[in-house]
Amino acid sequence: MKKLATLATAAALLASFSVAKEIKIGAVMPMSGPLAAYGQVTYEGIELANELQPTLKNGDTVKLVLVDNKGDKVETSTATTRLISADGVVGILGALTSSNTAAVIAVAEKKKIPVIASVATNDKLTAKREFANRVCFMDSFQGEVIANYAISQGYKTAAVISDQAQVYSLGLAKAFEKAFTKAGGKITKEVKVTSGDKDFKAVVAQVKSANPDFMFLPLYHPEASLIARQSKDIGLNKPMFSGDGVANQTMIDLGGDAIEGYMFTDFFDYSAPPTQASKDFIAAYEKKTGKKEMNSFTALGADTYNVMLAAMNKCADPTDSVCINKEIKNTKNFEGVSGVLNIDESGNASRSAVIKEFKNGKMVYKTTVNP
Amino acid sequence: MDFLTFMQQMVNGFSLGSMYALIAIGYTMVYGVLRLINFAHGDIMMVGAFLGYFGIAVLDLPFAAAALLAVVGSATLGMLTDKIAYKPLRNAPKISLLITAIGISFFLENAFNVFFGGVPRAFPVPDYMSHILNLGGLVFSVSSLLVPIVTLILLGGILWVLFKTKYGMAIRALAFDVNTVNLMGIDANRIIMIVFGMGSALAAVGGVFWALNYPTVEPMMGVLIGLKAFAAAVVGGIGSVTGAVLGGFIIGFTEVVVIAFMPELGGYKDAFAFVFLILVLLFKPTGILGYDFEKSRF
What residue ranges of chain B have pLDDT lower than 50? Predict the structure, then answer.
C-alpha cells in the first residue's frame, strides 16, 4: 500500500512538471470571525479575477493560495510566514483592515515579497515600507473629499464623533478636521467613543446641544448605526456622514430607517461602472453568481489581483518579487475594475472616490470625486 | 451646558444605571451565598438577550412572550451551570470555583460565536417600546423609561423575598453560615440553585432591556457590561442587594457625566468608572453599603 502511495505521489509530481510552470500568489483574508463578511466579498473578487485571467503572458499559470486569518493580527502574521516560506508565493494580497495589513507587511517586508492591500486606508500603512502597496485611497484623501462636499452643501459647522480605539477613525477624523477648517468650516463639538460602546445617548445629547450643521462619524458600522438610531430617538436630525467603514449590509440591517439619507464615501459603485474593465467584470460576476449587485470590496479585491498580474507580466522573470514590487509602484493609468489607478513610488494609489447615501435600505450612488 | 441638556443627561444616566443595577444584583446574590464572583453572569445576560431575539425574530412571538422565554430560559441556564459546574466544587478551594466560572464564560461566548456568528444582529424592537416621549424638551423612548421602573419594582420584589419569606430567610442564613444551615435541615444546594435562578432571571431582564435600548445582540456583548455590573456590585458593597442597585446608578452616572463634561475624554469613560471603583475601595474596602464579612449580608 505504501509503495503504491509513493508511486502515486511520484506520478503526480511528474505530471505537475510536465505542464507549464505554476506560480503562486498568496491571499490573506478574514474568511471567518467578526470581519468574515468583508473578507468573503473581497475574496470573491480576487477569485473571479483569477478565473478570468489565470495565466501570464508567457503561459505560466497563476495559482491562488488563500489563508484565513480570522480577522486576528497574530493569525495574520502566522499566515503570512506560512505563505512565504511553505508555499513560496511571489506576492501577497490582503488583509482587509489597516491593522491586519500592517501585520502582513511587517513579515513580507523582511522577505522582500510585495503586498497589495485592497481597502487598508490608513495613511501611515505604507510609510517607510518598501514592499507595501494599495489600490484604495488614503484616509487623508477621504477626509478631504467629505470636508469639501460638506462645504459645497453649505454646511458651516460640524460635530465629529470618533473612535479612539481605531487608528482608522482617528486618522480620518484628523484629515477631515484639517480640510474642513481650511475650507472655512468650524468644528463645534468633538466627542470620542470606544469601539464596543453601545450607549451613545449621552453623546448624542451633547451633540444636540451644540446644534451643528452636520455630523461626521468616522466609525465602523456597529457604532455608527447605534449613534444614528439614538440620534433619531432624541430628535437629532442632522445630516450624517461617514467614511468607507459603514459601506456594508450590516449597517443597513442595524440602522433600519434611522440611517435614511446617511452619506458615506466608497471606492466604487456598481450602478456607475467607471471603466470598460468594470463593465466586463460585472458581467462575469453576474454570470457566475446570479447576483444583481456587486460590493465595492469585490471590485477592489479584483484589482489587487489584476495589478499584481500586470506587474508580473512586465517582469522578465515573473517570480522575481523585487521586480514585481518595482512594477507595481510603476502602475500608471491602469484600467482597473474599481476605476483608473495610479500607484506612486511610496505604494499609494491615487484614484477617485464616490459618495453614496443609504436610501430605502439600499446604497445609492450620488457623485464621483476625482483626485 | 444648558439646563435641558443637563436634565437629559440625568435621564440617560438613570436609564443606563438601572441596566447595570439589574445585572449587578445577580453578582451580589451569588457572592452572598457562595463567595463566588460568577464571571459567567454577563454571558447569561447575553444568552437572555439572544433568547429574546430568537423569540421575536425566529419564533415570531409577541414581545412579552419573548421576554418571558428569555427570563425562563436564562434562569434554567443559570441553575444548570450551578448544577453541572459549581455544585461538584462546593468543597473545593474558592479559586477552582472562580476558574470554572471564567471557563463557563468563555464557553458561552464561543459557543454562541460558533453557532450564530460574531456579526451583530439587529434586535426587533416593538413600535410601542421605541415610541419617543417628549416632556417639555426632555426626550426618551418608552423602553428607557421602563428600565428604572422595572428595576425598582424587581428590587422591591427581591427584598420582599429575602426578608419576608421562608426562602429568603434560608438564603440569608446561608450567607451567614453554610454548615449550620445544613444542620438546621435546610437543603443548601437547593437554596443555592434558587439564588442562581433568581440572579439569572434578573440578568435576562437586563439583557432584554439592553437589547431594546441598544438594538443589537452579539455573543461578546456580555463581557464589558458584565465587568461594569461587577464593578457596580463592588462599589455598592458586594453581598448587598440595595448596594448593587446603588452601585449600578453610580457607575451609570459616572459614564454620562464624563461624556457630558469632558467629551474629548469620552472614550475613556470605562476607565473613569473603574477609577471610581478603586477610589471607593481605597476609602471603604467593603463598598458603600457593604457590611463587615462577619455579619449578615443583604
Answer: 296
Residue B266: per-residue pLDDT: 80
Query: Rounded to an integer, what distance in angstroms lies between the CA atom of residue A21 and that of residue A30?
Result: 29
How are beta strands B138-141 and B216-217 bridged, if at all? unpaired
Among B140, B255, B259, whose Cβ lies nearest the Cβ of A206? B259
Classify A303 as helix, strand or coil.
Answer: helix
Q: May I ask the CATH class of domain A2-137+274-351?
A: alpha beta
Domain pair A2-137+274-351 / A140-266, same fold: yes
For chain B, which domains are there?
Answer: 3-116+123-283 (1.10.3470)
Please tell me the distance from the alpha carbon of residue A251 to that of residue A226, in angstroms, as a whole number. 9
- CATH number of this structure's domain A140-266: 3.40.50.2300
pTM of the predicted model, to two decimals? 0.78
Q: To which residue does cell 475624554 refer?
A: B265
- Tell if the CB–CB gap between B266 and A226 is shorter than 8 Å: no
CB contact under 8 A, A254 and B224: no
pLDDT at A288: 92
CB atoms within 10 A of CB B293: 9
Q: Is B144 on the interface with A (CB under 8 A)?
A: yes
Answer yes or no: is pLDDT of A297 > 50: yes
Dihedral angle, C-alpha A169, A174, A176, A181, nearest 10 °: 150
